[in-house]
Every structure is written in C-alpha cells, then in structure tokens.
Prior knowledge:
By secondary structure, this protein is mostly beta strands. The chain has one helix at about 125; strands at about 5, 10-15, 30-35, 40-45, 50-55, 65, 90-95, 100-105, 110, 120, 145-150, 155-160, 165-170, 175-180, 200-205, 215-220, 220-225, 235. The mean pLDDT is about 95.
Amino acid sequence: MQLYVATRKGLFIIEPGRWGLGRPHFLGDPVNAVLAHGGAIYAALNLGHFGVKLRRSDNGGESWSEIAAPACPPKPAGTDDKTEWKLVQIWTLEGAGDTLWAGTNPGGLFRSRDRGESWSLVTSLWDRKERTEWFGGGYDSPGIHSICIDPRDERKLTIAVSCGGVWQSANAGESWQLAASGMHADYFPPERKHDQNIQDVHRMVQSPARPEVLYAQHHNGVFRTTDGAASWQEVTAIAPS
C-alpha cells in the first residue's frame, strides 16, 4: 500500500516498508487533493493565475495527463446569491464504483462517471435555497471539504461544508437533507447557535468498520454521531481542538 501526501509544494508518494519520500510530482505546485481509485491516481492542483487543474495517472504516477476540471455554471442575472460562481479550488476527491465526487469552493459538489473526463454539478444541492446562506470559514467562499461514502451502500453520501453544516443523501445525490442536529455554533447569537445550516465543520470522517459512526472536527469542538448523522454529540472528555 502506498501513501499519497498532497502538499503546497507538490505530491509525494511514500512506498511501503520505508518512511522516505519517493520521487516528487508537480514539484513546487500546490496540490489540494489526491485520490487513488479504480487503478488511477487523481491530483487536484491550484495554480493561482492559471486556475484549478486536474491530473490523472494510469501507471502509478510514472506519467500524468490533464483531464477536465469541474466548472461552475454562469451566474444568472438578478440573483441574490452573494457567492461568486467561480471555481476556487477542488478541496476533496472521493470515489465509489464508477463514480468520482469532487467537493469544491465555492460550495459546489461535482460528479464524474467517466474517470474525470467530464464533470457535472449536483444541482439538487446547489439549487437549494439554504446554500445561499453558506459562508466561508477560512476562505471568502464556502467549501465542501469532506465527502463520506457509506461502504455498505455507495448511494448514501454524507458531506460537510465550511460553513454550511452537514448534509446527507440516501440516493446518490438526487435529494439532500441537513444532518447537523446537535452541533452548536458559539460564534453566532444564542438564538441561532443550533442552526444546522451555519455550522462550521472543519473535517469529517466515517468509520469503515462501523459506518454509522462519524467524527467531525468543528470550529467549536469535536462531535461524534453513532446513528449515521441523525444526531451529533460533543466529545467533551478531550482538550479543546
């Protein structure tokens, strides 16, 4: 098993049996996300003035080819959406079966069914009125940084947004519901601190052995769910994050 490390200075592949860096890839370029799936390696780069780029290797990193990066649709005139409809970065990549998923700033979830050759925006999430209330935590725009695919059923997705809470789909993204009950945003007035749509989750992971268990590192602490994100409880028996 190889370990892929995406950094602001390139992509590094650590070979099994030794703790040492192999040959670097994209040396000096920021690599935001990397995914090994289906016999290929995917790397998302953020080249500043030259934009977001996506690369794929079909030979273990010996060579790379450029493939299409997701793109936001044109922003319609007259909308009250304050988010700029422009791809800032690919924050995370995940895959299951023949489907790839990309979470991005400014809060768009994209899907590919042809190994990244083309991408489609998941409009069932993008078009929800709640999305216009999302906002950036560390960036100017909101971002989808965590995509958890249930190993028992790849149609069941749980995603986390900074800042936009946790969302879940049971039908491969056809419909969505908020799933951040129990989280609290202490940076908001008391009457809104439990609003699920404004929670600032920084990272979320799912237990592969017990998929109903997920952990979330939140702006205000660490939360855990044992019922598949139906409810969350703060883990208080640890030092503040």
